């Protein structure tokens, strides 16, 4: 079949929207999904800085949502017409997957970042027959259609706004999952979130939905104003004595902190803002060595890396849509939609901080 997709042909080039070809229908355990909308995540854009490790040319996009149009075999658990949110790929067989932690799959990097499944090579080509990378994050959803492993697809209620749901499979899942799963935050807890982008604001919404007090730290006044509308206490990242200020606002220190920035300075500030036995979670990829200042890990404080919100998407996505229905997780307020043809404008706006979460509509 032939359909339109946004192709990234080189690390420094713009996306080109062109016709691509899928040479086979769903294999056993796969489903073909007609994409209703796909979020643009900073991980998609980070391919440009991947030092050639992610193969190109490729169709990126890993926050897709759409309608199942065809299934491979009778055991997918899905049927044509089902509305689905598509998550990340995993092998389903390693210790991490069997323990209910698919984000820590032994093959996570291979399957999601570095070329997908080798057995799928050659199935996905451009209009002239040139090979495209087999699959990005198990979906390659900057396109009108995506072929995905059935276990990556989470069935959702068809009354939900399907075109907006894709980011629940990654960006919003990561921030919300960090708070709800990794921290287990609840009433009476305090959560300091460093970076008020898509992941950080999802964490803010999840914290307030759980009954915790959220503090949002950012350097952009408009992001702080947005966080305040979501019931967070806004604090400018350049505030003098930032850790002391957060400790005052949280009655002696935050119980939890989440860093989405990857900034060594802010990570040290976050640790200093914690109360004894506090927990700092890191979700951003570090690009330079992290030097922890003396005293930051004293008194039982700890730091851990959190991948994909420690989530099982099939459990967390329905929880988040339920919170949205209850008015407690208004993720749609973070979204601006763009036609897929305007993907380069969406990337520019995302990089400039003009939009929290772009969603591309094929």
TrEMBL record:
The keyword Membrane applies. It holds the Pfam family ADH_N. It comes from the Bacteria. Its cofactor is Zn(2+). Signal peptide: none annotated. InterPro entries: ADH-like_C, ADH-like_N, GroES-like_sf, NAD(P)-bd_dom_sf. Residues 198-306 form the Alcohol dehydrogenase-like C-terminal domain. The keyword Transmembrane helix applies. Keywords: Membrane, Metal-binding, Oxidoreductase, Transmembrane, Transmembrane helix, Zinc. CDD domains: benzyl_alcohol_DH. Belongs to the zinc-containing alcohol dehydrogenase family. This is NAD(P)-dependent alcohol dehydrogenase.
